[in-house]
Amino acid sequence: MSPLGAWCLLKLDHLGPLEWKAISARTGPALPRISETYDQLVDLGYVHDDPPGTVALTDAGQAAADALDAARRDSLAELLDGWDPEQHTELASMLSALARALGGSDAEEPREETEKAPASDARPEPS
Question: What is residue 108's DSSP assignment?
Fold first, then answer.
């Protein structure tokens, strides 16, 4: 999965189902490959249109988003080497919330250093 695909999964996990045009608007004009990313996520079985025009996570997509969150949480835990989550359950809970929030935050929107494309990148019509 591409970094943009991971970002989309985390955004959907954080915000819930979104209209495709809202996802496209959040990625900004610097990401012309959002439609390719949508196709990749559909092919992987991670998202579906429900209702048409609205992108939602499938069970597999939710599992992938959960795995991404767990990886972030583990990375944060590594940074806090020596702490015991069983002794600091509140901190463990806060790390999980922080990892989830970081994955869906607007401050972490993906960017590319390529020539900017028009922001009107539309989702492909369902077949």
Answer: G
pLDDT digits (tens, 9 = 90+) for 37-72: 888 999 999 999 877 888 999 999 999 999 998 888
Strands (E), 27-114: 47-49, 54-57
The residue that leads in pLDDT, 98 or 55, is 55
CA dist 91 and 34 (Å) reads 36
Cβ–Cβ under 8 Å, residues 124 and 37? no
Token pair recorded at residue 27: 């990625």
The full set of domains in the chain, from first to last, is 3-106 (1.10.10.10)
Residue 23 to residues 39, 57, 66, 84, 106, Cα–Cα distance (Å): 14, 13, 20, 38, 11
Residue 94 reports pLDDT greater than 60: yes
The C-alpha angle with vertex 27 and arms to 120 and 105, in degrees rounded to 5, equals 150
Residue among 93, 99, 9 nearest 55 (CA): 9
3-class SS of residue 55:
strand
Residue 56 backbone dihedrals phi, psi, to 5 degrees: -130, 155
